[in-house]
Design brief:
alpha+beta, three-stranded antiparallel β-sheet, globular
């Protein structure tokens, strides 16, 4: 049997894990697949060469140990398009039918249900780590949920960056999913936020601007 054909099942399992569980390191994938990290890296290298996955350094909180940070692998836009089309087509068909039967508010309610889990995990994290800044807590929860999130500091504020969106193609037809997510960010952070780009609209990533709070104006005392 051709070696490439023999390797196809493992290659597909690697992609399925990243698709369903979000970006992961080679070691995490190897543990799930009960393979050696070296074997998984061989598949990841091939997928990266084909533009199916991309890699970035894993974020490390606290003191960094010796050696280079591990790489985290995520699906590219091309990878998502290739491996999620069937799932997305089914989801879109189901939502279209739901909208026909129950009306647009049913989609809005579904969008609220979708972000409810993010909100719950955020509040649990904040309660467990009260010293953690709200913005970092939100990014940590998004990252754990497979959004490959990070923070980019700017002069006038910060940007929440999401390198992956599990529902990108569905959100392209039902933008209410992005709207409700943006409203959630604003509610959790206690400030107005602005969505600048989304994967659902064809951008390479989702970015949300979080402005720094305005300084309190000082009213001069009357002499």
């Amino acid at each position: 049997m051709d070696a490439e054909v023999m390797e196809t099942p493992t290659r597909q399992r690697v992609v399925d894990l990243i698709l369903n569980d979000g970006p992961q390191t080679a070691k995490q994938l190897a543990d799930h697949l009960q393979l050696t990290p070296a074997a998984v890296r061989r598949h990841l290298a091939s997928l990266e060469d084909e533009g199916i996955v991309t890699s970035r350094e894993e974020r490390v909180y606290g003191p960094r140990g010796r050696g280079r940070p591990s790489k985290v692998f995520a699906l590219t836009d091309a990878g998502r398009a290739e491996f999620t089309q069937a799932y997305d087509d089914l989801a879109i068909a189901a939502l279209r039918r739901l909208q026909e039967v129950a009306g647009p508010m049913a989609i809005r309610d579904l969008a609220h249900d979708r972000v409810a889990g993010i909100e719950q995990r955020y509040r649990e994290l904040v309660e467990a780590s009260p010293e953690l800044p709200c913005l970092q807590a939100l990014v940590d929860v998004l990252d754990a949920d497979g959004y490959a999130a990070s923070v980019r500091p700017l002069r006038a504020g910060d940007q929440v960056i999401q390198y992956h969106c599990p529902v990108a193609h569905v959100a392209a037809e039902f933008p209410i999913l992005c709207e409700i997510e943006t409203q959630l960010f604003s509610r959790l952070l206690g400030t107005h936020v602005q969505r600048l780009a989304t994967i659902a609209h064809g951008d390479g990533l989702c970015t949300t601007h979080v402005p720094h709070p305005l300084p309190t104006p000082q009213i001069p005392k009357r002499k």
